[in-house]
Amino acid sequence: MSTTPVTAFAGVIDTIAHLVEAVEEERWSAPTPCTDWNVQQLVDHLVAGQHTFAVAMGAQPPLPAPDPAPEALKKTFRTSAAALVAAFEGPGALERTVRAPIGEVPGAVALHLQTIEHLMHGWDLARAIGQKALFDEATVERETEFARGLTAQLPSGPGAPFAPSRTAPEDAPALDRLAALLGRDITE
């Protein structure tokens, strides 16, 4: 079976959903490598981004439930993720121009942005809960190449969407190389 960018994204989402479902009650307040958020805040951020991008792609997903209880958040993650995947699968979705946080972009670029966002925060989540994020290596490599071009075009410094890139050993796993590119300390 051939993998399209949308099916690859759906695989990334599914991997993260399994990580979210694996969060134990005492870990929701644990810090993450994304220093602005603990585990619950990170998952909330992903859910909000899924909703925002689904709407930008022209879908009318249900609003995320305001219930902060972990069991509700686990369900909300799956529901909002499914709405976003469905929005990217829609006719003409990847060709349509959409409004993203970095400006107007084709739907295909929005898909890259969300894939990178989910890969990175999936890495954050896995580290925070002591799990491994087992993403498809080809997907991670493809998105790392896209991220290299993207980071070269984005502003740096205070308020920038990513911390300055760090170096990673050439033999580091693909996901760690992406994390370093996006400013994460992979040695922790």
Automatic annotation (TrEMBL):
InterPro entries: CHP03086, DinB/YfiT-like, Maleyloyr_isom, MDMPI_metal-binding. Residues 13-126 form the Mycothiol-dependent maleylpyruvate isomerase metal-binding domain. One of its GO terms (molecular function) is metal ion binding. Pfam families: MDMPI_N. It comes from the Bacteria. This is Mycothiol-dependent maleylpyruvate isomerase metal-binding domain-containing protein. It comes from Streptomyces bingchenggensis (strain BCW-1).
